[in-house]
Amino acid sequence: MKASILFVLLLAATSNAHSIFQGPIQVYLAEVSNAASSGTTGLSWFKVASDGLSEGVWGVDNMISNSGWSYFIMPSCITPGNYLMRVEIIALHSAILPEKAEFYLSCAQINVIGSGTFSPNYTVSFPGAYSVEDPDLHLDIYDNNGIPNNGGNTYYPPVLQSSAALQVPILDTAALRSLEGVVQ
């Protein structure tokens, strides 16, 4: 369906990240009346994508293997309009110490088209969405052998476990290549 293809976004995160920066990549949207002139104070953000830890591979690892790109499909249910998009990498390599999770942010002004009617019933504010006491931001991600696999435990990115926000799979490079020539 061509409408769903129109929602493909390619996000450049940070080009200088390397394998020690282990952690998730998350994407939030905030609806605004005019993305070109809106400020960020007082906005209500909802999560549309998250690439956390899967089979020992972190979202940042996926980004690195994709030459600095993180891919996802914008859910087609998003209400058309202007949005600010917040893409964040949460680096957890030093998170065993309090307040040592590192945040790398990027923002974009976007216009969503389509016929979606989604209205989030759970939103967060930035700053304020995370707490220094959040167990997903203060943890030891290394196992006894020094491998950053969260000790084999499931990792839940902050806000995700109590959020009614959308959960959308991150596309790998092969899936996106199958769309080449279709996305304009």
Describe this protein's structure.
The model is unreliable at 1-17 and 161-184 (pLDDT under 50). This protein has a 4-stranded antiparallel beta sheet with strand order 3-2-7-8. A two-stranded antiparallel sheet has the order 1-6. The chain has one domain (2-177): Coagulation Factor XIII, Chain A, domain 1 (Distorted Sandwich), CATH 2.70.50.70. It has 184 residues and is mainly β. It is 9% helix and 27% strand. The chain is globular. A hairpin with a 2-residue loop joins β4 (53-54) and β5 (57-58). Its EC number is 1.14.99.56.
Biggest sheet, strands in spatial order?
Answer: 3-2-7-8
Helix amount:
under 10%
CATH class: Mainly Beta
Distance between the termini: 14 Å
Write the element-wise H/E pattern from the N-terminal end onward.
HEEEEEHEEEH
Number of continuous helical runs: 3
Q: What is CATH's topology name?
A: Coagulation Factor XIII, Chain A, domain 1
Helix and strand content put the structural class at: mainly beta
Q: What's the β-strand tally?
A: 8
Spatial shape = globular
Provide mean pLDDT, rounded. Answer: 76
Oligomer: single chain
